[in-house]
Batch of 3 targets.
Target 1
Amino acid sequence: MTTHDDVVEERRNFLYIATGAAGVVAAGAAVWPLIDQMNPSKDVLALSSIEIDLNNIPEGQSAVFLWRGNPVFVRHRTPEEIARAEADDNAPDLIDPERDEDRVQRPEWLIMSGVCTHLGCVPLDQQGDFGGWFCPCHGSHYDISGRIRKGPAPLNLPIVEYTFLDDSTVKIG
Amino acid sequence: MTMMRNIKIKGLLAAILGMTAITSGANGATAEGVLHPERNEYTTTGIFGKWDIPSLQRGLQVYVEVCSACHSLDLVAFRTLEDLGYNEDEIKAIAVEYEYNDALDDDGEPMFRPGIPADYFPAPFANEKAARAANGGALPPDFSTLVKAREHLSFLPWNSVYGEDYVVALMTGYHDEAPEGVEMTPGLYYNDYFAGNQIAMAPPLFDDMVEYADGTPATIHQMAYDVANFMAWASDPTMQERKEMGLNVMLFMIVFVILLYFTNKRVWKKVKKGDDIDPSKL
Amino acid sequence: MASDKKFEPTNPTVKWVEDRLPIFGLLYSSLGAGYNAPRNLNYWWNFGVLAGFMLVVQIVTGIVLVMHYVPDVNLAFDSVQHIRRDVNYGWLLQAVHANGASMFFIVVYIHILRGFYFGSYKAPREILWFLGIIIYLLMMATGFMGYVLPWGQMSFWGAKVITNLFGAFDFIPFIGDGIVEWLWGGFAVGQPTLNRFFSLHYLLPFVLVGVVILHIWALHIPGSTNPLGIDANGPYDKIPFHPYYTAKDAFGLGVFIIFFAAFVFYIPDFLGHPDNYIKANPLVTPEHIVPEWYYLPFYAILRAIPDKLLGVVAMFSSILILFAMPWLDGSRVRSMRFRPLSKFFFWLFVVNGIFLGYLGQRSPDDVLALGVTALVYAQFATTFYFAYFLVIMPLVSRMETTKPVPTSIAAAVLEANKKG
């Protein structure tokens, strides 16, 4: 064994371990900015919440808003629609069972993502077998509570995070 | 050997000194009559530099109430005023003061809407032509990067011009009358610090032009200092984060380098002095 | 002992891969224990590794910046500001990339001058030297085009001035006439120019990587030079690259990173130009147009000659002349440690180069010491620059009496040790 091999063999020395550990920390710290730069930037995050004036949406109508690059459905439901949604709470064909009251903060306002949970298309309003939404891409039928009733989509249309700032303004995000 | 080295070093020093002698003749390069801005004190200087929050808030007030009549601040969004110590509600309150007509009403016509934190400070003029038309042909520069654009750093610290200092000097460098023998172009004002000494901007600040909420007397110098701080922030909003991270990086690297130094020394211990060499085999 | 060790994997997975693609063996024999290097390399030999490190840093940060940068004359400036203000760690990545260019050049200049001093360009390393010059030329082109991308005032006017240099070749039939328009893709520096510079700025670093690989390959044929300049043929003249030079280079790299970080975190704009904080404006020329510091000596040479064509020719010649160095220098001794007169002129050359750099950022009409203008000083310095290669080097190298050279590296190590 030569002098040079001795040095390599001496790897377990505390000094070498400490140096190696510091090197790993340095490399990790250097890599993190390279990864984090791909996360949403500050200007993108600043637009991550929108405020909606509900006065512009009459009863029985829906509106679509662009939020974080995706559509959000806001439906002003009629009492008849609310009753229909609640009546179906225990329907046997619910693929992703969920009660209507768990999907709304105020029953007359259904606010949810407008992205089909199958492959990301945007469902059409007031169409399909259940008087709710119908996704034309692969034929998913959603009811008036946005629950999946028929078709390939696995989940109900997700409820987005929102808060009522007052009776006529809601903040999404 | 050491003597040789000494001679070499002395030779280099002599050469550098010689060059300095040649180059020092160049200090008069700035045009005659233009003064070098005085150095002011800021909390932002040095490796521990921090934002001067009260001054930044006062500077924002000066910008909003005075400068923004002519100068845009295109790259600064209201949301970033967080750096100045404002909370979300305060920022919203600042933003709604401004109007934007980029929204569409139900008929597709442009519609005014109030500003939100994600908006950027609106420009006072629709475009460059409008700005020039309203300012006697001169274009008031945008403030977003102006302090950086006026910063001339030199190896010789006393030759450096810092953007903040330049702003303060310019604001306080007006003369009512041009010095003897200087022919003024009509419509321009004499200023000690402006390149060529003739500036199209009328003296913008007067004592007590704004009323500071914190009771600081609003002298011209104070307002200039505050707005210079504000502009420095607008030019380089990550300064404090940069220096804080820099300190951590430096401390870590110093420890790391010390470890590397001893590792290297240990690795080389046997071969450095040639202990592995068998002289008889040479 | 001096013979290079072969890679013998013990780990079965490594062996499995190695039998199919000898990639570990390649690394082992180029940067690991399988590559033997002279035992007496000093810290000036760190700079090759540092240059390689900087190339990687520039490529990695560059690729990441492209994820946010927009090569559009109306958006480029703002997109750089967007990176600095809004992108997570964008300010850091941008500062590392912008200052990284300067760091790359600092390191490469020292690397080149180390080659000058220790005769690294002499036989049998001529091809290695040529590849180095090609790397340097590629770096200059890449750095220049990268500086244009932020689309500030100095970006724009720098691009205009440098591309106009090629107008000096308008006497060449067929090509000469339209060469500048061809570079611009229009009648001035504009959107097509920005787009093509962006494309090439992205491409050239990968060409650089290719040439760097050739450079390292060419290095491994004769092996590294060393401060004594003698061939490392003796039984104890060499030691394995790993662990000795990996440890030494790691330490040097750590020190260098501290230097680099001081710029990035505390004076990120020191090496830049304030006018580049102003959006490009084709109607307003900045008072002084100066290139980045690393081009300044050549800029001074360009302006030293009042004729446009000759100035351009002189500027290009000042770099291309490096190709002739292996033959201009006729000395049988490589290292200037044993060539005192050559050493004296070498340092004069270095000082002259720094002085040219200083002159490059002055206006030619500036009156400096002794009432002489920068232009005249630049003419003297340019004359010396060329005289160094064409007169001093050929004569001194052939006529100088050299000092006695040690018989082997190992002998020199023992000798130095005896003296303490």
Target 2
Amino acid sequence: MSAHRIAGLGRIDRSRTVTFTFDGKAMQGCPGDTLASALLANSVVLMGRSFKYHRPRGLLGAGAEEPNALVSVDRGGGRFTPNLRATAVEIYEGLNVRSQNRWPSLKTDFGAINDRFGRFFPAGFYNKTFMWPRSFWDKLYEPTIRRMAGLGDAPIEADPDVYAATYAHCDVLIVGAGPAGIDAALEACAARKQVILIDEQDELGGGALADPALWPWLESSLNDLAAAPNVTLLSRTTAFGFYHDNFIGAGQRLTDHLAEPGHGPRERLWRIRAGEVILAQGAIERPLVFAGNDVPGVMLASAARTYLVRFGVAVGDRVVLMAVHDSGWRDAFVLARAGMKIAAIVDLRAQVAPDLMAEAAELGVPVEMNSAVIGVSGRHAVTGAEIADSAGGNRHKIVCDAVLMAGGWTPSVHLWSHSKGSLAWSEEWGAYLADKPNENVRCVGACAGKWNYGTGVSIGALPTPDDPATIKAFVDFQNDVTAKDIALAVREGMKSVEHIKRYTTNGMATDQGKTSNLNALQLASGALDRPVQAIGLTTFRPPYTPQTFGMLAGDAKGALFQPTRKTAIDPWAEEHGAVFELVAQWRRARYFPQGGEDMHAAVARECLTVRSGVGIFDASTLGKIEVVGPDAAEFLNRMYTNPWKALEPGRCRYGLLLREDGFITDDGVSARLAPDRFHLTTTTGGAARVLNMMEDYLQTEWPDLDVWLTSTTEQYAVIALQGPKAREVIAPLVSGIDLSSESFPHMAVREGTICGVPTRLFRVSFTGELGFEINVPAAFGRYVWEQVWAAGQAHGITPYGTETMHVLRAEKGYIIVGQDTDGTVTPYDAALDWAVGKKKADFVGKRSLARPDIVAPGRKQLVGLLTDDPAEVLEEGAQIVADPRQPIPMKMIGHVTSSYWSATLGRSVALALVQGGHERMGETLHVPMPGKTIAAKVSGMVFHDPDGSRLNG
Amino acid sequence: MILIHCPYCDQTLPELEFAYAGEGHIARPTDPSALSDEDWERYLFIRDNPRGRHHERWRHIHGCGRFFNAVRDTVTDKFEMTYKAGEPRQ
Amino acid sequence: MTRFSAFSLFAKALGNNKTWPELWPDASPKPAYDAIIVGGGGHGLGAAYYLAKKYGITNVAVIEKGWLGGGNTGRNTTIVRSNYLYDESAHLYDHAVKLWDGLSQDLNFNVMYSKRGVMMLAHNVHDVQSFQRHIHANRLNGVDNEWLTPEQAKEYCPPLSIDPGARHPILGAALQRRGGTARHDSVAWGYARAAAALGVDIIQNCAVTGIRRGPDGAVQGVETERGFIAAKKIGVSAAGNSSVIMKMAGLDFPLESYPLQALVSEPVKPVFPCVVMSNTVHAYISQSDKGELVIGAGTDQFVSYSQRGALHIVEHTLAAITEIFPMFRRMRMLRSWGGIVDVTPDRSPILGKTPVPGLYVNCGWGTGGFKATPGAGDLLAYTMAKDEPHRINAPFNLDRFRRGQLIDEAAAAAVAH
């Protein structure tokens, strides 16, 4: 029996047991155990397989730095999570854990053949081979590499859990609830600051949890903090990233440790803005680099101490300590005093402080100075260690079942680095320490290098009499990067630390180099014969530890990912069977099928009904802007291409808006309600953009203009009533407005009431028929709609959707900005010359229309297109050529922008952008499609009622 | 998420309330038609894009709605100042 | 140069890998070169390689202020595709895709170009129209791109959720089968090694501080941290720092530099067979050979050189990804980072001559530079060697902004109505 539980020690609750399974085998632990401590208590030391060589691995550490013991947890029902560190998984009744990256089992893994042939797979090997024969890369080599790579399996079911997100503000945020963090919290608390203290572990205390002498202090301090109204304590919470202006992201794990997770969120994202950030993240012990340092049972000395003191688990019966730092000695003494056999303390240094030697003697621990472990026997568990003096002499073996490594300490400056604080090399620590801050942040405790762990030396790899090129001494455990890989990278010309990292993948595993970065730096420093500081340091990037996608997405899921905007009439459309489409952020009724109609049939019916009778359409999504002020007309005159100043109140005008680069960005019909008041409309998708653009010009270019802009898009419901019977339908409902053609002509606006509701009634048409757009306050939208709908019954009214709207407008050659134009189209290209004020000295975009390539011939221009076969409906987006017999690549001269079956005309109609199109009237062009080429003639854009007589009816 | 001081609201608020609005102090020419193609191109497209001190515009779009100017270091992302539209270049 | 092959790998391994030579020697600057490339990313190294290999100009230096491939080459999501709408763009990117195919053999360095397919999701009718337009144009340009129904898309990429009730349902997808990914660092290293073997000097840790011009206005060389280096031809391929370098030659450019973030998950066993992009929700995803999900986002909103992005961009990106792939909600983000992308007004690159004689530029690739690496390198080399642009990069000249002949792919996909 190697690792085992020791009676009477630890902070776990021994009065109860918890049953969990590991690879199907049931085991017991105690409440308070991590999976790592519970497995050790069950004498399980083999917990994982490494990434590349599939080497058997046990625990290296006891915390967030763990690179080896990665497992998958399956809670069932889609709750499968790979790559969890056993040191961070809390056990609960029924916990179901699987080892990973092995086949068929953890003990017998065929992938370990990679280990046998490891020297054929040195760093960067994949760059040097798999190139011949060429076709094998896609079919054989790469799929094989991919299968071998990866750690755990991916989840393959939708995650049923929910996640939450919150904001928090505080005066002081303290990251890390070890002694230094707790001291800082007590101090800030006493100063009456608002304090948040967060720690990634289930239990607050950090390093104090492995030091019983501090337990009374810990308990009273935490009680004080918990009782303080100005302190928030967050355990199981990882501050993962330090962003601009003291903005910290933290992930809180709420249910993963519970046997019954309940219905609350699994994790919560905390977005914390702190006045001051105090980083008390402590330090992580460094492993040592020697042959066999990855055999299960070789671990950090501090981890062994934690397992003993906190969890009451002895990591072995006979333990060897390999130290280059005093702290390991102290850990070994703790183990020895608990009754564990320390077979030897091996230290590379020639001497250590006399008190250490004295204590070792007192405890009867043999000491071998000026020596190093040069090999470890055992494959699935340590069976012994080989030791030699630093000159390679006195080789001898010691039987043992655990080897502890004390390589010194690396302060956790990750968040400090995220904040762009600078780092300075400390010879004393053999590590980088925080130097100059870039935000209001400071480090305290071990994180700042201010903690007494004793002294030590830092070293890349332990000396060995064996050829370093033939041994596997691991630097990055998970990614299987060895000391010789670092040497190879340097040999191959990788001189910057970033190159070494990327070439060897050192520091790129799921632990992100927490235990490997400094050792790799030391090794590279040796290989390059340059000081560590001259090689640089890889940049730490968020997150500190891996963070769940779902938590980072927070509550932005489904309907909350992006709200769907719905009009006041939307529920009516839903009740009446509308099929919807998403347009910008809105959902709009696309068509209203009746009986078993498909879209084609429904649209044909809707179109014919509008042309012959009347149809009702929800146009509420149109953007609306109220433009008010004495200079309103002047302002619009500067913004739009056409003149606005002479527009009489009560009349409407089509407005065309360009970007300053001369291309069409929006359009809409707008009305002048009074000399100083306009009701603008924009496209559905363009509303916010247009308002922003207008505000920009108004505020920053023409602040002298006395104009106010207000978005009224959601204030009004807009009911379009279109068709020859439209007037008859609304006549009984409207009061205060003379609806006769003489007093209320096309392109006019009147204010009055409809169904008793105040309305701005537009006489406008996007269909070519007599039509009205009824603007009423949105709250009355559905009411008025239903009244109009009822009144229309006698006239055979139909609701219609966007698809019919598209067909009807295309039959009339009305463009849709964004479909018939695409951000590269000028007014001239779109045959909208008539909408450009020729006499205007300036308007937004005017100057750009005079640029050389804008006035050059051969631009793509909007035209009509009629297929020779009237039954053929062109595909929107289909490309147009003049010569269909040319080889590929063909010279394309345009594309179809809109294309529909016109039930009214009994044939297809299309609009297209064609090079020099306006000069090609009557010309036959060709649309090459897969398997056939479609001939079509260029025509004018108005296919229906070219003289507009129906509009004015 | 950077913090931005709105000179109109006189409050320092998170970036999510603001929309970036490009380089600052690029005034629209009073008579664009008089400009050469080169000068018009410069107005439309040429941007300073410095490493370091940058004059730029922001809009407090989810607040007061005002456009304002800022000087920010593009290497550190730190604001030196913000000031109201129309005030001289700082 | 030691030829790389399974045999050399085997032979060297028998010697415990002790005799591998340097991939490229770390050169010190000579006083003068025939041509200098400023910027040691994939594009710049590629240009140097093709100058030496195709145009016989071997007295070339690549000058890099940091380490090779340390800019956007080493920070991108490695997507390769060429299904662009306009002829100019399609020809430009397809030139690159053709070079990608065979690049490993050409360089004798496996850049791990993987033709696993790039799928672009259509979420609304407008997307469908836009993608159909791309597909038709691509077909007539000889660029592969095909339409998939939602069911076909799901078959090609099983993790996809095609629930029609989703907030952004999938109405179909455009698939370019030749598209895929490559290993970003390997591209820089492969070009550096091959260029160095042809005589090119690779000079790292040497920031350019000035561009010296003669009385005739033509370039004479570059001032650097390590002294003046003369050359009559200078090609600038400096991505996010292009504005800064061009200003040294007295040129103001139509460029702005924005932060672009990307992130990877922890590695998992193969689960994601292709590249999926969604412009509507602003996210893209693939799985690296190592097993990490590689995920990209849109740019942050403000000009910055800090290489430090904001958390809310990451939040949005992952919300978008998990909306389309709900099974990835339990995956975990391992690392996120930011690059600096230089963006032109029409979001197409500038690749060609400048008003300064002897000064050539390759910039403005925005978020799309990696896919163009071999093509951009080749065309910059051609332009420098011949002192005139190749017909493929001729439309991507600087003058188009004055003339108004923009190549605006993003505007072509504009959403309105």
Target 3
Amino acid sequence: MLELRKDIFADERDDNLKEIGKGTQRQDMLGHVTGTSSYFNDHKLQGMLHLKVVRSTHSHARIRRIDTADADRSAGVRRIIRGSDVPRNLNTLLSLINFGKDDEPSLAVDKVRYKGEPILAIVADSEREAFEAIAKVRIDYEPLPTVFDVEDALKPGAPVVNETYPKNAFIYHDVYDHQKLRFGDADAALATADHVLEQRYQMSPIEHAPTETNGSIAAPDTNGRYVVYTSTQALFFSVDTCAKILDVPSNTFHFIGGTVGGGFGGKVDTLTEPLCILGAMLTGRPVRYVFGREEEMQYGPPRGAERIYIKDGVMRDGRVVARKIRAYFDSGAYTRLSSYAAVKCAAHLPGPYTIPNVYGDVYCVFTNRTPATAMRGFGVTAMDFAIECQMDKLANLVGMDPMEFRILNAYRDGDMKAHRREAKNTALIECVQVAAEKAKWPIRDEFKRASSRKDGGGSRAAIPRTPADTHARTIAPAQQRTTYDRLPAAALHEPPREPPPPAPPPPPSPRPASPSHGAGRFSSVFGTRRR
Amino acid sequence: MAKTALQFRHNGSDVAIFVDGGTNLLVALRELIGDMTPKFGCGQGGCGTCSVLIDGELHLSCLTLAETVAGRSVETLDSLKQGPNLHPLQRAFADNFAAQCGYCTPGMLMAAKALLDRNPSPSRAEVVEAISGNICRCTGYEPIINAILAASGGRASA
Amino acid sequence: MTVTVKTFTSSSEAAAALSSDRNARYLGGGTLVMRALNEGDISLSTVVRANDQALMRIDPSGPRITLGAGVTFARILGERDLSFLHAPARSIGGPAVRNMGTVGGNLFAPNPYGDFTVALLALDATVALQGGFGSRDIPIEEFLQSRDRQAGTLVLSVSCTRPTSAEAFRYRKIARIKPKGGSVITLAAHLPISGGRIAGARIALGSMAPTQIRARAAERALEGRALDAATVAAAASAAAEGTSPSDSALGSAWYRREIVGVHLRRLLLGQE
């Protein structure tokens, strides 16, 4: 039940709330349509200098030597900043909430861990002069073996991407190399399930591609303070991150932000402010550091890729009785926010369904890719993609309509979730019913009558006996093909073969994907479900 | 650095500036004249955020060498509002939720103005074509298309 | 070493300036040269311009038409006599890019751009060049093959065949984004029909090799035949022959090779 604390701010609030169902103008709309909304870059400061970074041309390499002799003498160059100039040249974003170890330098010193990693910052009178100086920097690299695949990265002997985490996995609470979820006995349930379906899902990194690129302008202010105009989506977070990296009190900075030209999660990493402010500190002049479009697309952090294995046990009547998931979140070379993404991913298992036996392992893995960051439901979105693809395949496997299959397995008020919390205010059933109605998708009356508020709880509220883990490591499951999958290219040249059957009973011949209402197999939904 | 003198009309006023060799019109407008309404989005002609009108024709200011506008007329979003009164396009964008982050809005409005100036009653397809060089990452294009159509309807009936 | 802009009144002076300076580039509509400057291409330190009205000339009459190098795509779209070139002109950019981009510049546009040049290649174009030592006309194929070495020469104009009928020239740009996006593949076909049979077929492809190329195997499959289903099928199956596409964000080399025949078949059959 939602509680409204009406006593709080009673004098500041109009209780005559009638907002829902009618349009309300944005506060910033007038500024937007007149072009007077002030973005970070809409400030022209007297004597402003321009900062560009020298980026690694290797995905993984030791830096043997950095020669800036020619660049130092290049016209218009005011200052070349090295890693040794950064007061605290190691940070991790979530250290502000004591989560994770400092693992990322502002400017690489000993080695580079992804292509495009900043090594030097050049502050010059003009962008052109900064570009000319960049071309004069000589960096001697010793290339190192690379790893770009999350599962390869976890194998023994894989190249160590980030020495802070020598096993290439983020370590939670100084002990655990992954997030674990255990509820019931998934292996036992898989062994007795009518069908077992095991699948592999892969989601690619996604670039936010905001129309305004990441950037900031920093300028010396009075009393030794600095005013900073920034594109950040997380202003106070950025203030504290800069204070830590530059080793000054946070009230050294007057950050001005708030109007962001598109963020979507891609402007929370405090990518430009520390070097920009440092440039202003070292030159005593206003400095601007703004990403070009290619920098934004190539080196701006993306939504991290995820690889997900799902192994489900399903009964002929459509009940999902076991779900076993292994997921790998590709953090790229540094942690940023991916440790949190993996937590969210684990917290989302097994999706909005009541499944009595759930087993989940979620890893946050380091590879030689561009570090990943936040983006609209990161950690959850890819898992939902995988789970919902899997639900369609399972419905197909047991010959059920996919909408009805979801209603059958949906969580209801009073059910016990795999996280040992009671499900409250659930509404998946109603969402599916409305979606079916809007899409004119026929579902049978018993499913139209189903409700999130009925038939939950009871035996569905029990916490099952959950065996402790044995320490044997699970081996990577093989991809099992379904009628949804295309033939792999190699198989096109030989007669099609049945996929190897999984250990439990072989699957029945695939049914057509069209809605099928097998009432005989599935007569008493709630009766069989309760057992 | 050698500077080149440059005069042109900016939103109806004569302006004179000195530009460095290779300076683009976007930088000239923003940093030398102080008109911050056109925005930098890509520097390569892919986003339309920097769109302005040159002699009434839609151009990308980031790909325009500043000195090529000598003696010509440049209009930016700053020219649309007449005193305190919004241009019908600005009003329609506001009323139709055609801006979210607002960053693409200056370019969208100039592309829309270029269309309506020569075609006061465009079809939906013509509106889509007119803003096909402008990228919006927030609202989706439907509210923007609806706003331009609404503004053209308003004009037609006025 | 900052950027110097040199503006001339005649194309011959501009050509002389261009050929005497390795770091000079000629500024047409700006979509290539200004982009390079914006992105920090320091190999470019001299920008050469010419205000020569000859570069803006359009001669739309006769069996071969001539377009000055400085003619924009918007101007082509305004010429009723050039309707056969409207589809390629309209397929380029949004309105702003069409107001700026030029016929001459398009000859230098790398993948996934250069769509107009695909049409010119199918229409047997010749390119008029002004070098340090006079001017000459060369076939567009020869120009494209040596494009990397043409930076020191100035393109004055391009001439191409006017198709005898609307049916004889077909053009299509395959893009993932509607209505506008970079080319996955661009196709143009000139199919003059003589006595019910194709005589002098030219098929040009964009984004299927480092520069725009002709699909010669497909042309051979069409030559001397009626444009029937069997002929079209033969041409489509030969479409990928001799191509060398690259992987890009818009499509992999494999994908391009797989679909080029499909799109050629649709183009030849007039299918959507």
